Task: structure prediction
Amino acid sequence: MKTSELIAALAADPVPEPVHLGRRLAAAVALGLVGALVLYGLVVGPRPDFAEALGTIRFDLKFVDALALALPSLLLLLRLMRPDAKAGALALWLFAPLVLLAAAVVAELIVVPQDEWLPRLVGQNMRYCTTMIPMMAAPILAALIVALRAGAPQHPGWTGALAGAAAAGLASFLYASHCPDDSPLFVATWYPLATLVCAAAGAWAGRRFLAW
Amino acid sequence: MGALPVEDPADDRWSMMMKAAMAGDEGVYRRLLEELGRSVRAMARAAFARARLGDADVEDAVQETLLAIHLKRHTWDPGQRLGPWVNAIARHKIIDAMRRRGARRAEPLEDFQDFLPAPEEEDPHALSDAKKLMETLNPRQRDIVQSISLDGQSIAATASRLNMTEVAVRVALHRALKSLGAAWRRSVS
Result:
């Protein structure tokens, strides 16, 4: 086929319905959250002392950490859907949850006696944490990948990994209300591990489904 | 952030043309794709030459780029100039085409916009993979693409020849172009 012939076919192709990248991504977040909430409602649920816990700084910090990961990841994803995107300063905001966690860990090490460190780090349910966060992240990640297929990311693998991190952030936000472990020592160890699992799954999905 | 917004949109002819195309002006779209294709061809030829690859696959890279421009045109932000967006797509596709030819490391590519002053015409003898990929389409799709591209028939003429509605022909054409893009992608991996 000659290029001029291909152009004739392309020009004859009708103008499609306009695609709104932002709306697609927002719809994916909403849809994915519904899936995660169903899982949360069926098997996870809030912890019994949820109301009292809300008044404690360690508990609240978990939600701030989760949002500090989810929000910049989602904003960056929206940008990376365009092939000529530059990550720019927005990418630096991905360090925000790490800085926040590191500061909380330092504070915890200062206020808590040394023999408490290890029990707090190990916590009560690290295995449940590292399985349930990826489980709840899965529907969000799947919805994000479907939405991202409308885009043309320069680096499909990295973009997928970022989608995994965003999904993990949102799932952590839900899971934090269940988790009985509030110490930053626990949160800084097991939540990032769960996030890495999600990012790895996202990287795989990105290479597989976001290539164009 | 990406490129600065266009100060005066009238400065950027291609952006205006793409807007008209997306509003349904087929003639302008065809002219835009022809112009873009000539500059992409010059860019691809330079990249292939620098990587010491022959010219044989240049036309494939051009066609893949044009198809990607077409299928992904909704990722262009109309508040930005069209050139940098085309450059990003062309780089992506030219590097893919070079990898397929066995180039290990992508040499740094020159910017698409450096080739605006020296566009290149298509080599009339160039063969492309597209012909082979057409065989992955189902017979009806192939018939429609051939009728419109090779034989230069209109949608209406194709529809009446195949005894289909015009809408059905348009839908089939769109699906065919999408699967052509997918087939190209598979041939990369």
